[in-house]
Amino acid sequence: MKLALINGPNLNLLGMREPETYGSTTLGDIEQTLTGLANEKGVSLETIQSNAEHVIVDYIHNGITDLSGILINPGAFTHTSVAIRDALLGTNIPFVEIHISNVYARETFRHHSYLSDIASGIIVGCGIKGYEYGLLALINTVNNIKK
Length: 147
Ligand code: CA2
Description:
Layout: E1 2-7, H1 19-22, H2 27-40, E2 44-49, H3 53-62, E3 69-73, H4 82-91, E4 95-99, E5 121-124, H5 129-146
Bound molecules: ligand CA2.
């Protein structure tokens, strides 16, 4: 089983700026931890971060051939991107949406997600641990689909 971890815009800055909101762990650390966890569970994990919407859309399209599931923190595209929503709908790849911060405790514009109603699960406000919870939830979802 091959899964993907997609991180959207500005998440490459994790651990370098705004530690009070996003913590001090870098994206590289998160990718390494998740790859280890995935391998423990017998699945492979591809990781990608992009600040460009079309790169994420293209990546999801290409995933139709070999991805069983996606864990995605869409960053600010959460609140703006019909294109990423349509890519996920169009490919029908199961996905879990994760947010490090509790978006519902922040500005009103962060309360709406273009992805949440079509996600198989959502993890919000659990800090970077949420990536691990999200990966475990995704593996569980994909295994249940296969049965
Ligand atoms: O809480 C999350 O994970 C978010 O997806 C993070 C996005 C934000 O736009 C969403 O509303 C919630 C922002 C990611 C920016 O990441 C940074 C990390 C360190 C320093 C600056 C930005």
